[in-house]
Amino acid sequence: MAKPGSRSIDLLGKTVEYDVQRSTEASEPRIDVDIHGVTVVLPNSADVHPATLLKENAAWVVDKRQQYEAHREQVPDRTFAAGEQFPYLGEPRTLVVEPCRKHTVQDDTIRLRQSAVEQSSVEQVLENFYRSCARDYLTDRADDYAEQMGVDYEALELRNQRTRWGSCSTNGTLSLNWRIIMAPPDIVDYLLVHELAHLTEQHHGEEFWNLVAAYVPDYRAKDQWLTENSVKLIFSEDDL
């Protein structure tokens, strides 16, 4: 079923649904394809027709869409109950709800304060905890890499992005998807280096990738991991 407001186009004999977004943070037109679908992102000042961009990249779009449609079959069926496992920094952790002073990650568990769950829900409390952990962890790692790379960022914002893991605005604001806290630490580091590199190189040219490679030599493998495993980082059915 088509999403409200979505459009469709014929690419290589296949009907492809897509959305169009205008972004003040985008420096050039791009096509995002992920578990949620196809999105054409255009800078506010760009005079580019989305259909033209899609046709020019038809083979890539169709191939990526097919990959993600296969990944959708692997979407976790989460019930948000004590005893269920959720990833935290790449490791599965068993969810425990118990009387305690604060939420914590201990060994192979995520322990949530029972009184908070009773006032809300496991899903909401866990999301809030993930967001809190993400802000602390991502800020520490971003500060570390910014110093190594000799750049300064203005602010770090957590977003509920549906089509991207991160972005870096021209004014130096890092916008990161809070769900990345579920990924392994080396994947988190790659994402941060990628976005911080945009403070020096705005486009994805050779100079940009050379800069990323200086800090993450196997960046291609990390990027491929995100492509192949993003479905494992889906938090709830609301993400779909």
Automatic annotation (TrEMBL):
One of its GO terms (molecular function) is metallopeptidase activity. Residues 30-228 form the YgjP-like metallopeptidase domain. It is an enzyme of class 3 (hydrolase). It holds the Pfam family YgjP-like. Gene3D superfamilies: Metalloproteases ('zincins'), catalytic domain. Coiled coil: none annotated. InterPro entries: UTP_pyrophosphatase-like, YgjP-like_metallopeptidase. The keyword Aminoacyl-tRNA synthetase does not apply. Its EC number is 3.4.-.-. This is SprT family zinc-dependent metalloprotease.
